[in-house]
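Reviewers of the previous submission asked for a worked example of the structure-prediction workflow described in the proposal, so we include one complete record here. The input consisted solely of the amino acid sequence. No template or homolog information was supplied to the procedure at any stage.
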Amino acid sequence: MPVRRHSRKKKTETASFNHKPSPEVVSVVSHKKRLLKIISKKTFLYVIGAIFIAFSVYLFWGLPNPTRLTTHPAPASTKILDRHGNLLYEIFVSERRTPISLSSLPAYVWQATLAAEDKDFFQHKGFSLRGISRAFVNTFFRRQLQGGSTITQQLVKKALLTDDRTIRRKAREFILSIAVEALYSKQQILEMYINQIPYGGTAYGLESASETYFSKPAVSLSLSEAALLAALPLAPSYYSPFGSHPEQVQIRQQYVLDQMLDNGFITAGEHASASATPVVYAPPPSIKAPHFSLWVKDLLIEKFGTDMVEYGGLSVTTTLDLPIQEFAQSTVATEVGKLKREKVGNGAALVTRPKTGEIIAMIGSKDYFDTAADGNVNVTLSHRQPGSSIKPLVYATAFEHRLLTPASVIADKPTCFLQPDQKQYCPQNYDNQFHGPTQARFALGNSFNIPAVKTLVVNGLSDFVATASAYGISTWKNASDYGPSLALGGGEVSMLELSTAYGVFSNQGQRVDLNPLLQVQNQFGKVLYEVPSYEISASVSAKLSSTQFYSVGSKNFQITSVSNTRVISPETAFLISHILYDNSARAATFGTSSYLNIKNHPEVSVKTGTTNDKRDNWTIGYNPDLLAAVWVGNNDNTPMSAIASGVTGASPIWNKIMTYALGDLPQSWPVRPADVIGTTVCSLSGLKAPESPAADCSPRYEYFLAGTVPSVEVSNRRDIPIFRPSQTPASTRQLLENPADIEYQNHAVLYDPLNMSLCLDCPGGYGPADSVHLDRAGKAILPR
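From that input alone, the workflow returned the following structure tokens.
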């Protein structure tokens, strides 16, 4: 029995082990397995999807908008041009770029780029599998450097992405290239490309490259030159003609020409001719008229902001005339070099058109690049003492207020000026002599000092400072800061201010502020600033002086009008100009033949100025068409040795510049207004000459403002005390201390504007020294 139980148990266990599950159980198990497989697949897909999304985010996050190619163009250089389109200076931060239109170029210029970079450009849709394959084979098997990207891809890389060699950048480039091809035409893409790519150094874009290497616009490139420029973008530094492998650019240039021939862009004859034509490079570009150009840059930044000037691609047509500028620069450098013995180390010059305020030339120093001598300092903007060149403003103020006339007699005799709270001022003349009774015409023409100071105190110092501001002198703020020495240049001015002031005389009493700008355009051709002007034909401009019109592109223009301010009457302006071109009026000091005379232009008015300490020497002259101002001295303000104005110093420089600038222009005399009256006056008294021939007073002709013609000279003789030892009018001290040496004689007597008596015919001279008392406004307190 036990055995049987045991075998039953085993059988049961065996039976249990071999038992097959029921169909219901099998169904449940299979369902669970399928469910697990589905869950596994979804998990896998989710994981893959998540990875794909993460990669897409990584790839496309921050992807640039391809429309930025036109809405945010690449930074472009600002070009400062002279009045006829000559490049003076190009402003850029790191990339020198000037956009150019594809349609303006000869076909072979842009075809050279296609032959060098992407001959299938017009067939593909942004990428080329053949190009990529060929680049791979040539680079890794044949060891030949060759790009595989299309022009579209290169544009995207340069303008929207970076040069990073990563899969991410390449994928982004691929996507953006397709987008760019969809948004823009092939012509637009090619135009953006040639304006974007680097050509070596700071030259970016075809136009800048053409100007950098050949000093010409891209529209004027020859086939040989175009092929050479097309050779550069592959490796600008390696192929640079100014680099260490200049022969390589010739090999690359020939490759481009061969490709142009193979692709039907040029004929065999054109290929042969271009291959045989040597390329002549221009010298490296440099700044021209540096003081002027950098000053204009500062003005542009004030007007338009730094970003617009450095990145906005402005085209700035200035007033400068480059040939006159270069002649003036050379003349200043040459003539200053001759003045070493006179201890002159520097010079500056300014040429303007008074009618319009245009600056024709600006030379800020003898050599901008002489850093050891502070050559980069622009002396035309610096404040220097004007010396006697300020005197025309002093006399003009007196004429305008009818305090003096050109025939007014002023005593040029030792005189001290006493002003409250100031040291007495006793000026001397340049020649250390005194000239007795002197009419204003000759006092100004010969630049006598004492009459000029007396004229200032007749005006009143405060009134003169206020009047000077109307002339454009902005540096004199408070009259209390100055004394009677202001008549001799004791207050500093800039050359710009002084030229503006002299322009008032040239412009019949109206001030026209100086202006260096004619037109400013942005890179899209929109005019941001321009002076009022009208277009003239080429035939008309051919008959004009280069300073009488300006050019923008192929068009010529003349200025129509400028803003002006009435400062003095036309009558007063005429009187000053007439005195300053009267060669006989200055003959006593300068002689009849000096550098103040311009050949064939006797109508040029001119004044010199030298400070008493010989630190500044000036010559300024003008006619209605042109004005030139010249200064010589030292930047460190050390004095010069003897400088004879009109003979050495600034005058020879002024004469040469003015002669060159006037060129073949006809004489241009100032117009005499109707209210300027001419009559004869006596040479000694300045009074109107009697009509009777018997009363001979050596008459001469003089001009006056209407209503200021003097009375007819009559006998005005008096008994006056004479000091016997000197035979001169006795002083108060001589009358008191030496009564035995006094005798009374009958002489012709006249009183000057300061009510000082003058003996016109005393054999011993003009009498004792004068003392003139001034009030706190710097005006003479006249004796009763």
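The longest strand covers residues 742-751. We consider this example representative of the routine output the project will generate in years two and three.
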